[in-house]
Amino acid sequence: MSRRGNRLGCAGLTALVLLVAAVAAGLWLIRQASTADTASNRCVAVNDGTSWELSTAQADNAALIAVTSMERGMPARAATIGLATALQESRLINIDYGDRDSIGLFQQRPSQGWGTVEQIMDPVYATGKFYEGLADVSGYTEMEVTEAAQAVQRSGFPDAYAQHEPRARAWASALTGWSTAALTCDLSPTDGPGSPETFGQRVQRDFGSAVVATVDGTGDGSRMLLSTDALTTASGGDPARSGWAVAQWAVAVAADQQVVDVQVGDQLWDREADGWVTAAAPVADGTVAVTLAGQRSETSR
Questions:
Q1: Residues sharing a CB contact under 8 Å with residue 286, sequence separation 6 or more, in sequence order
Q2: How far apart are CA 111 and CA 38, in angstroms?
Q3: Mode of pairing for the β-strands spanning 183-186 and 267-270
Q4: How far is CA 143 from CA 53, 81, 84, 85, 153, in A?
């Protein structure tokens, strides 16, 4: 064979090798894409067969607003009004801007006596001030949501709150325990270990003394036990309802708190599963068990 023929043959072989390598790389990328995390990182509350979505950031704020009403002994209607108001005012995001000097979840204005900028930007303070105003509205439980919200907010768009009522009602019903196994989140694997101390602080922030969080001493320190007895007393004496309220609150804050699973009774929400399932063994009445990422490592989805 001539030298020219040898060169052509080598060039053809090189092209073939490059083609095989390119195909192999393409197949590898396809396999990687097929096994990649496909979580929506959204949360859903279901009511009357309809699913109402929120982002994880919105769900985290919704959890505080709803359980605050319960801890204060207010009816679920108050939570619906609070959530509808925050959805309209800030889309349930704690923003530091708004119309004129309005800020925070409820777009409260320092110039109208709601508090200082620092106070209003604290979601706990802002939520408490909203419910203080709502409690002063005579007959708010019989009012339309938009009327009750407007009585507190004095908004320039008083009819705007009504559009958020169905979503607010679904989330309020789940987060105050009236709807069971109704709230779930589709989340990516945790991005680090959970902190029992940080989680305990979040429990105290949202529930005050109505829920007590302790570390389960029988495990590796990543399992928290939440006692709901005081919340049951504060909210009207229904232990099943308070258990579901706390359990679904824990799901709503799972993304930020690195929660792996939540159990109430014999029902379990697992970060890697789809919705609520039956657990192998129940937890005690008056207790919600929450496992944080830690010694237990999550597998890829």
A1: 227, 228, 229, 232, 239, 243
A2: 45
A3: unpaired
A4: 26, 10, 14, 14, 15
Q: Which of 145, 164, 172 is nearest to 59 (CA)?
A: 172
CB–CB of 218/283 below 8 Å? no
Residues facing residue 103 across a β-bridge = 108
Q: How many CA atoms lie within 13 A of 104 on its CB side?
A: 26
How many other CB atoms are found less than 10 A from the CB of residue 95?
Answer: 15
* DSSP per-residue codes, 3-66: HHHHHHHHHHHHHHHHHHHHHHHHHHHHHHHHHS-----EEEEEETTEEEEEEHHHHHHHHHHH
- In angstroms, the CA 65 to CA 82 distance is 7
Contacts of 178 (CB under 8 A, 6+ apart): 76, 241
Bridge partners (DSSP) of residue 54 are 43
Prediction pTM value = 0.86
Cα separation, 272 vs 221, in Å, equals: 21
Report the distance separating Cα 136 and Cα 129, nearest Å.
Answer: 11
Burial code (b: 16+ CB inside 10 Å, e: under 16) for 196-228 equals beebbebbeebbbebbbbebbeeeeebbbbbbb
Query: Each residue of 117-142: pLDDT tens digit?
Result: 999 999 999 999 999 999 999 999 99
Separation CA 126–CA 116 (nearest Å): 10
User: What is the Cα Rg of the chain in Å?
Assistant: 25
pLDDT tens digits for range 36-75: 568 999 999 999 999 999 999 999 999 999 999 999 999 9
CA pair distance 226, 215, nearest whole angstrom: 9
